[in-house]
Design goal:
By secondary structure, the chain is of the alpha/beta class. The protein is built from 23 helices and 14 strands. A hairpin with a 7-residue loop joins strand 8 and strand 9.
Length: about 600
């Protein structure tokens, strides 16, 4: 269960261009400078403790005062017009920190990778101390939905009050016409999306500033949020919490962890729980916490969590052993071997990207087992389907090979390689579907519902890349692979460069789903720069081989040429081969014979004539 802190949203960009909005050090600096200016204008407060803290020489280094402390000092400071305490916080939230603007921050890559893991059913809850709405935005985007949604159709359930906890915490799926898996996002410090605008706040007279936890006093006592405290305690007892982006001092988190760990110590003293735990045993417990740190060393807060868990579990742990459940900046060599910056820092984006990539290939291999949906579908027509899938997976993500922990082509699952926050593989899959002209931002097709289609697309790409010996080229790189695949030919499907198969001929080959193949339009917008004489569509699904003709037109709707489109099922290309070698050879032989494709329902001339 992820516990995400400010570090995950550190590089989040504001849609309106406000820089440094979510960066804790920038937030602390804004409050410090505003407080300093305020104290300087108060000439009569010579003995004010706030003024001493802010204006003395030692405090000129802003890093000496934490964010929660400087917010506490703001509420202690003098009020010029003697307004109530909540109105002091109003200025702090709306004018200085601009908390409502956190709802206009775009999700980072880390938010999307966590959302992908949630779509795969690996995560159903997230606890966060952040005020922004990035997590729920990213999760809704994976469905192609625009956040925020109204009604009960939103799959992202934001919970920051007791009433919302009672209404939403038990929900697994949405109650709309199309059930979607829910992700609960617990905002234990408040949510920017729940704050009214500055104008509305002044009109309705109901201050909601206290819903945002800022000061050290707020954080220590959870501001009477017993539901959040009890939730965190329960998850600490029963789940594996992974702290990511959590490096600063969060008093309510640290103190609650210490209290729960003390419970563990009392349990170990029970007569039924005698004995001590070894170093290995304590870190393999089902509720052992993990820390993903940014720096090369753990902070005090991070160390305290791990040390408390080990100490109260009755284990003798040295400081070095605490790193067993830690991911540090020095681990960047494992997470990103191509990193040449020389800085040993582990960013949240890289960490969650690798977690997702490793999990994806494991899940796909699981879905392709003999009792999986993909094997069941393919085995009906292809006896060697399971063996062929294993060969494809062994090429894409070899097992027991540390060099391919994240796949042979990790860029295939990298948001940096895609467009509009869509990883390349999902863009390919959506082009095979061919339903929408444009892929929506952040869209993701999960393996739970689309394992058959995803596996077939990967299998066809693998088969089409084979050389004359029916073996994959060992020297192929991601750049070469990516250049051979195109998704810009609209309703024709996913383009694969097969010039090595049809040498010298202007043949363009596409992979397309049968639903899209059924609605192939008569006229298709085309660029005259793309040479084509014939198009071949490999149809995913049951399909009767057929031939169609389409008009290619330019942007002015002028006709360019008429092109023959030959449609054939991928199952027909594979035949009924009993071994993998035979299946690969049959696939290529049948593909080359596609020009001889005929309509079996129509008797040929030689069958309608009599010899003289």
């Amino acid at each position: 269960m992820p516990f995400i802190g400010a570090g995950v949203s550190y590089e989040a960009k504001h849609r309106g261009g406000i820089t440094g909005l979510t960066k804790t050090n920038k937030m602390q600096n804004r409050v410090f400078e505003a407080l300093k200016e305020k104290c300087a204008s108060q000439k009569c407060c010579k003995s004010c403790v706030v003024k001493k803290e802010v204006c003395n020489e030692e405090s000129r280094d802003k890093h000496n005062i934490s964010f929660d402390k400087v917010c506490e000092l703001w509420e202690w400071s003098c009020s010029e017009n003697h307004q109530i305490e909540t109105c002091r916080r109003f200025e702090l939230i709306y004018d200085i920190l601009k908390i409502p603007e956190f709802a206009n921050v775009e999700p980072t890559d880390a938010h999307y990778y966590i959302a992908f893991l949630a779509r795969e059913g690996l995560i159903d809850e997230v606890i966060t101390t952040n005020y922004d709405t990035c997590m729920e935005q990213a999760y809704c985007n994976t469905f192609g939905l625009k956040y925020p949604l109204t009604g009960d159709d939103s799959p992202a359930l934001v919970i920051d009050t007791l009433s919302e906890y009672r209404d939403k915490a038990g929900r697994k799926f949405t109650s709309g016409p199309k059930p979607r898996r829910c992700l609960k996002v617990y905002k234990i410090n408040g949510c920017a999306g729940k704050l009214p605008s500055k104008q509305d706040h002044a009109q309705n007279g109901q201050c909601k500033c206290k819903s945002i936890l800022l000061t050290e006093r707020d954080l220590q006592h959870w501001r009477h949020r017993s539901w959040a405290r009890d939730l965190f305690r329960d998850r600490m007892r029963s789940r594996t919490l992974l702290f990511s982006g959590f490096g600063s001092d969060e008093p309510q988190v640290r103190f609650t962890v210490m209290q729960v760990c003390e419970e563990f110590a009392l349990q170990e003293q029970d007569s039924t729980q005698s004995g001590t735990n070894s170093n290995d045993e304590v870190w393999t417990k089902p509720n052992a916490p993990f820390i993903a740190a940014y720096e090369n060393e753990l902070t005090f807060s991070q160390t305290q969590i791990l040390h408390a868990f080990a100490h109260y579990s009755n284990a003798s742990i040295s400081p070095k052993d605490l790193n067993a459940n830690s991911f540090l900046g020095s681990d960047i060599e494992f997470f990103d071997s191509k990193d040449s910056s020389g800085t040993q820092v582990l960013e949240a984006d890289i960490f969650w990207k690798r977690v997702f990539q490793a999990a994806f290939w494991r899940l796909l291999r699981k879905e392709c087992r003999r009792d999986g949906a993909a094997a069941s579908f393919l085995s009906l027509s292809l006896p060697c389907a399971s063996a062929l899938m294993v060969e494809v997976l062994d090429w894409l993500a070899p097992e027991n090979n540390s060099g391919f922990s994240f796949g042979r082509f990790p860029e295939m699952l990298d948001l940096k390689e895609g467009e509009r926050r869509v990883i390349p593989l999902m863009r390919w899959v959506e082009r095979v579907r061919g339903i929408q002209p444009e892929v929506k931002e952040g869209l993701y097709s999960n393996l739970i519902e689309n394992s058959v289609l995803i596996m077939i697309v990967l299998m066809l790409i693998y088969l089409l890349l084979l050389n004359d010996s029916y073996e994959p080229n060992s020297d192929i790189t991601w750049q070469l692979l990516n250049n051979m695949i195109g998704d810009k030919d609209g309703p024709l499907g996913l383009y694969i460069d097969t010039s090595h198969i049809f040498s010298g001929a202007n043949i363009r080959l596409y992979i397309i789903h049968r639903d899209a193949a059924s609605y192939l339009p008569q006229r298709i917008l085309w660029s005259e720069d793309k040479k084509i004489s014939t198009a071949i569509q490999i149809v995913v699904g049951d399909w009767q081989a057929s031939t169609r003709r389409i008009w290619l037109v330019n942007k002015k709707n002028d006709d360019i040429k008429v092109v023959t489109v030959r449609q054939i099922s991928f199952l027909q290309l594979l035949g009924h081969a009993h071994n993998v070698r035979e299946a690969k050879k049959t696939f290529h032989d049948n593909l080359r014979k596609t020009f001889l494709l005929t309509d079996e329902g129509r008797r040929r001339v030689r069958l309608r004539t009599e010899s003289l």
